[in-house]
DNA sequence: CAAATTCACTTGGAAATTCCAAGTGAATTT
DNA sequence: AAATTCACTTGGAATTTCCAAGTGAATTTG
């Protein structure tokens, strides 16, 4: 992975600096990308149509753009779908799977400071008991 | 904190859903906001001018906008600067300080998967030894 | 103590991104 | 064979970001 560029399949990510937080934002710093990762990790979604009807109402053009950028950033990869040739199976790369601890901290923070869905509240309770175990289980579920 | 809105001083944040990750992105989901938080936590920056010359080159209009949104989102607050009346002191709220574990996970993830500044690499080594201790120290440094 | 500078912004306009609705072609189902 | 599903693309409007310049209050300088 280059220090200041990343070009894959026509898409290009320009890294502004060698700051780890800055680089993360260059890949994931928008309103949608992390929701796609969330759908992959927590909701078992893995097709274009799944993401499109994923709750928050991303538009199709933005979805196409974000999927390409996530692929360029090494977070997701495209594969053949077991059910049909018409479908494309999106999955997290190891780099994408490694985002789970970040997601977990985000959920914990947000649950503490906002009103959120009851499911999130009970998820955070699980985390308080055994964070490492929860993360391990989530990793397993993506194998 | 309301479930779907947050309006403070003319600025407004609209929460798309009751998902904790979604709400986080509604406040912090852009290319700049988290860098401002980073500057506050890790670089001891706390004035408008500090952020403006903060390395990555945010523009003044975007900075003004992001500061207002971060304030609206309850992440930062404005105060009087001890040195001068012309300056405004920005500081993290308790909610903003609670972002430290999120930042730490982001740094750990990004350092693993990208080439980053040597400082980040040695910081991650510290984390491997005693993550809780490092987080505690960072919290202390903001008191 | 008047003039220059610092400081935290605002303003105006161009460029980029996002939103929205409609359309396309390959694969699948009816 | 026709209709539907699927993963997109296209075109255009709305919003956000970028860029350069300007503003007024507070502070420093000559």
UniProtKB/TrEMBL annotation, chains A, B:
<feature type="domain" description="HTH hxlR-type">
    <location>
        <begin position="19"/>
        <end position="118"/>
    </location>
</feature>
<keyword id="KW-0238">DNA-binding</keyword>
<dbReference type="InterPro" id="IPR036390">
    <property type="entry name" value="WH_DNA-bd_sf"/>
</dbReference>
<dbReference type="InterPro" id="IPR036388">
    <property type="entry name" value="WH-like_DNA-bd_sf"/>
</dbReference>
<keyword id="KW-0804">Transcription</keyword>
<protein>
    <recommendedName>
        <fullName>HTH hxlR-type domain-containing protein</fullName>
    </recommendedName>
</protein>
<dbReference type="InterPro" id="IPR002577">
    <property type="entry name" value="HTH_HxlR"/>
</dbReference>
<keyword id="KW-0805">Transcription regulation</keyword>
<dbReference type="Pfam" id="PF01638">
    <property type="entry name" value="HxlR"/>
</dbReference>
